[in-house]
Specification:
Elements: H1 16-37, H2 52-75, H3 86-91, H4 100-119, H5 123-126, E1 129-132, E2 138-141, H6 142-167
Antiparallel strand pairs: 1-2
Helix pairs in contact: 1-2, 1-4, 1-6, 2-4, 2-6
């Protein structure tokens, strides 16, 4: 079984029925952390770590990107989507103008959009193949891609919580 080396997430342990609710739960929890953190959400707690706001912006963008990939995979045969360039978005400062309260709202909206889209897929559609370039290049199913969206939300929720712990109360 494939598992995340950092958080232990196992993609095969996620059922189609729980994808939408888990993505939404993680996104809303990150949004709540931003609300509690206030100005601390803008600070990086250590070199090599993103700020809570950067993690939140990344999750928002990942959820929207994965939603588009799922639509692409439901329509095209084994498509190869464009890369998202998640690290580059942070390195280029694309989240610098984001406000925590706005990103919190956008997380809720993007998770809801994703959950509704994913819930509309049939079992045959969930089994359709799509190329996915992370954690290694491989052909995946749309169900796996949905589980990856869960992983992104839950993994980065843990990052946000760790940032808050590192920065203090």
């Amino acid at each position: 079984m494939e598992a995340c080396a950092v958080c232990g997430f196992v993609w095969d342990d996620v059922s189609a029925d729980e994808v939408g609710s888990r993505v939404t739960t993680a996104a809303l929890a990150i949004a709540a952390e931003l609300d509690v953190a206030g100005a601390l959400a803008l600070q990086r707690p250590a070199p090599g770590r993103w700020s809570m706001l950067e993690y939140a912006g990344h999750v928002r963008d990942v959820v929207l990107n994965i939603r588009d990939r799922i639509i692409l995979g439901a329509v095209e045969d084994n498509p190869v989507p464009k890369r998202m360039y998640g690290d580059a978005r942070v390195d280029l400062g694309l989240y610098a103008a984001d406000a925590p309260d706005v990103v919190a709202d956008e997380l809720a909206i993007s998770a809801d959009l994703f959950a509704r889209t994913f819930a509309a897929l049939s079992p045959d559609q969930l089994a359709r193949p799509i190329f996915y370039g992370w954690p290694e290049d491989a052909t995946r199913t749309l169900l796996w891609v949905g589980a990856q969206c869960v992983h992104e939300g839950e993994h980065h929720l843990a990052d946000v919580i760790e940032d808050r712990r590192m920065l203090g109360p």
